[in-house]
Amino acid sequence: MSVDTVLQRATPSRRAALPGQLLGILSDGAAVGLLALSLWLITRSGAQPPILHLTFAIVGVRALAIGRAAFRYVERLSSHDAALHQLSKLRASTFTALVPRVPGAIESSRRGEILATFVDDVDQLQDHPLRVRQPLIVSITVTALTVAIIAIASPLGAAILAGVLVVALIVGATLSKRIAGRSDRELAGARSALTDALLDRFGSASVLAAFGALGAQRERIQAAEARLARVQLTRTRAAGLTGAIVALGAGLSSVAILLAVAPGAGASFSVPVFAAIVVVPAAVFDVFAQVFAALTARRTVEKSAERVAQLTAGELPPEIPVDADDADATDDVVPSAAPGIPLVEVADLSIAHPGSEPVISGLSFTLRPAELLVITGDSGSGKSTLALGLCRFLEYGGSYRLGGVEAREFSGAGVRSFVGLCEQQPHLFNTDLRQNLKFAKEDATDEELLAALERVGLGEWVRERGGLDASVGERGALVSGGQMQRISLARVILADFPVVILDEPTAGVDKLVADRLLRDLLGAIADDRAVILITHTEVPAGIPISARIAL
What we know:
Layout: H1 3-10, H2 14-45, H3 55-98, H4 111-124, H5 127-153, H6 155-203, H7 205-210, H8 214-261, H9 271-313, E1 344-351, E2 360-367, E3 372-376, H10 383-390, E4 396-402, E5 405-406, H11 412-416, E6 419-422, H12 433-438, H13 446-455, H14 459-464, H15 481-495, E7 499-503, H16 511-524, E8 530-535, E9 547-550
Parallel strand pairs: 3-8, 3-9, 6-7, 7-8
Antiparallel strand pairs: 1-2, 1-4, 4-5
Helix pairs in contact: 1-9, 2-3, 2-5, 2-9, 4-6, 4-9, 5-6, 5-9, 6-8, 6-9, 8-9, 13-15, 15-16
């Protein structure tokens, strides 16, 4: 995605945005009309005409006062509904673009930078329709219409107002850019630095405390916070300066119109009309002030769009599959198990991480239903890299066929619907056990969830914890390593993968517990499923192994 593409995806369609824009024009137009008509009414009333001559103005003032608030309220509902609806689509498309870049393509970026881009910068893009496009369209339209209406009564007054508006725009935009331009560029960097420091503080609190580094981390957080406050203060000063320019422009234009147009009052136009012309600049500049705010917001939005584009639109390294997780491929073709055809066929397979030499090379094997393939090797030999390649998180060389079809013929999501991975360190979300299982099968009933947990040997444990409502804690802090692996396998059972990869399921577990855990895990998998066991330890005696490969 380019910057223009990112901004386009953040912008609602014309049909969705048009009601808000029209309502905004009506609201700001009512504000200008209210001030002009009110002063006309006050001035005209001084001549004590018959009350019937003022009835239309009295009714008009009431209508404009009510309309200004009513139109603004409805405009906010309409414009924000359209922008937030579009923002949800943008979040989804941004997330989809990030998925194939993990792992490998964005490992050079800090966690805080990635999180700030996905959260803060994407959220900032809602300002494009709300605080850039719409204010510019509304303010310019209302200002132009007001100048045109004034020109009907006094071309000189309209020319003075237009001239002061142009000068104020040039001066205000130039000074704002010069003062706040640098801070606009630094804002996202300051936010990401603070987010990164906070993530390190809370995510590594125990390690920092053990080595007495909490004080240094607090200083880092304070420095990042001070930098962010300094940037925001500079932007606030720029906003105050443009506000002063708006007020000065309104006063100067009113004085200039008063001095230049006064000689024609009573001759070319009536005194009440003259009074309205003199006071209108105050309302017009109040509306025109949105232009300065929109220009400031535009710089921030463009920088956010640039960072989103850099993170999501950079060319993928050749080691990352380009077809991974296409969100539009909802009815994508997926692999299938055909009778007599191996589930997995690998020939001369090679896999590499981005920017490095192949970690896996020349690997060949065949795997059929009910077979167990054991992959062994020392740490760093490429066992986990193999798992990432088989799940299509990394590109491969050679041949890798699923159900007799080359894996490249399927999207990454299609491959991962056929090949399931139990990671070495499975992630558990900070919620209850039910929600940690249901994302593997959204429509699963509680009975199905409990049955899966029973198969992996957690039935009694779940009952002791109070059932599926039991919390697992942040990153599974309330469960042991073995229980975490069993929960991960329960997910695999619910998803019903034909091929299951167990990546170091007994890592960090002592030998006696590891043997029992491995027997339970393998015994929980259906007999007609193919299993790839990645381990650096010996497999317990009695477990039938179809093939063994040492990396």
